[in-house]
């Protein structure tokens, strides 16, 4: 009997690679852990900022749309001052769209990506992602993150542009220094290549083949890296906790992107 086709995102890939058992708990058994108050506030701020950027892309006056979010509006204006090209169309653009969705059928699955902002010309493609972390991760970590890899891969596969003409930029709009002082917006820029594209294809084949095997046998193994279990909300369920401790440290749970 053929397995039903699943739609996968970068979050699925990250969890599958990190721990198949955790993948099963979250996506197969629909188990979840409520976020901490701090995590909930950060997620809400991020969601509202993304909505604000979508509104301004539609030409709506954001100061009117979000009168109660003065800090957020100020962040948008700071970004506008630093990178005005993100807010206005340039000659030669074929497509400029906020919250742009693309899908790609691959090895029995469908990959779905949503770009915060995409700008295409006949000779180049730019993916922009808004990040609202208070402390940005290391650039090397984001370079190897499945969001970066999958977003660029899907665009290369669904456009006429070669990989070396594609760029992905993360803009950090809310980060602070060690003393908690607000910093101006900054960015990480990643230029794609054919070798990266080939490596991503090979890794996607490996992961999707593995997922199909796991779905067939319905046995999702635990990670072999025990250190990961100390940060996992399912460590007790998995019998990986050194001591039963029902007071899980929710702040230690890694952030899972919504898209």
Detailed description of the structure:
- The longest helix is centred in the C-terminal third of the chain and has 24 residues, at 194-217.
- It contains nine helices and six strands.
- The radius of gyration is 20 Å and the shape is globular.
- Helix content is 39%, strand content 19%.
- Strands 1, 2, 3, 4, 5 and 6 form a six-stranded mixed sheet that branches.
- It has helices at residues 10-18, 20-28, 37-57, 62-65, 70-82, 139-143, 146-157, 194-217, 226-229; strands spanning 7-8, 93-106, 109-121, 125-131, 166-172, 186-191.
- It has one domain (7-41, 78-252): Lambda Exonuclease, Chain A.
- With 259 residues, it is of the alpha/beta class.
- A hairpin with a 2-residue loop joins strand 2 (93-106) and strand 3.
- Helix 7 (146-157) crosses helix 8 (194-217).
Shape: globular
CATH-defined architecture:
Alpha-Beta Complex
Number of strands: 6
What is the average of the pLDDT values?
88
Per DSSP, what share of the residues sits in E-state strands of 2 or more residues?
A: 15-25%
What is the CATH domain class? Alpha Beta
Order of helical and strand elements: EHHHHHEEEHHEEHH
Total count of helical runs of at least 4 residues: 9
What count of structural domains? Answer: 1
Topology:
Layout: E1 7-8, H1 10-18, H2 20-28, H3 37-57, H4 62-65, H5 70-82, E2 93-106, E3 109-121, E4 125-131, H6 139-143, H7 146-157, E5 166-172, E6 186-191, H8 194-217, H9 226-229
Parallel strand pairs: 1-3, 4-5
Antiparallel strand pairs: 2-3, 3-4, 5-6
Concise description?
With 259 residues, the chain is α/β, with parallel strands linked by helices. Helix content is 39%, strand content 19%. Helix 1 packs across helix 2 (20-28), helix 1 packs across helix 7 and helix 7 (146-157) packs across helix 8.
């Amino acid at each position: 009997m053929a397995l039903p086709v699943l739609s996968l995102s970068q979050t699925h890939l990250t969890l599958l690679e990190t721990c198949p058992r955790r993948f099963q708990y979250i996506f197969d058994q629909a188990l979840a852990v409520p976020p901490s108050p701090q995590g909930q506030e950060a997620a809400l701020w991020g969601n509202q900022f993304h909505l604000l950027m979508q509104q301004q892309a539609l030409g709506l006056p954001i100061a009117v749309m979000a009168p109660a979010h003065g800090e957020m509006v100020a962040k948008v204006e700071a970004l506008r001052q630093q990178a005005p090209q993100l807010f206005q169309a340039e000659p030669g653009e074929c497509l400029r769209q906020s919250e742009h969705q693309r899908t790609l059928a691959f090895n029995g699955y469908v990959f779905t990506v949503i770009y915060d902002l995409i700008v295409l010309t006949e000779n180049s493609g730019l993916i922009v992602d808004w990040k609202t972390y208070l402390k940005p991760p290391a650039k090397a970590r984001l370079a190897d993150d499945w969001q970066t890899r999958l977003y660029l891969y899907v665009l290369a596969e669904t456009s006429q542009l070669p990989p070396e003409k594609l760029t992905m930029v993360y803009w950090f709009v809310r980060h602070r220094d060690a003393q908690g002082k607000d910093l101006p917006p900054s960015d990480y820029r990643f230029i794609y290549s054919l070798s990266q594209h080939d490596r991503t294809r090979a890794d996607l084949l490996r992961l999707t083949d593995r997922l199909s095997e796991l779905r067939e046998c319905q046995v999702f193994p635990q990670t072999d890296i025990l250190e990961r279990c100390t940060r996992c909300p399912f460590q007790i369920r998995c019998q990986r906790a050194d001591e039963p401790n029902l007071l899980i440290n929710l702040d230690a749970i890694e952030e899972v992107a919504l898209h």
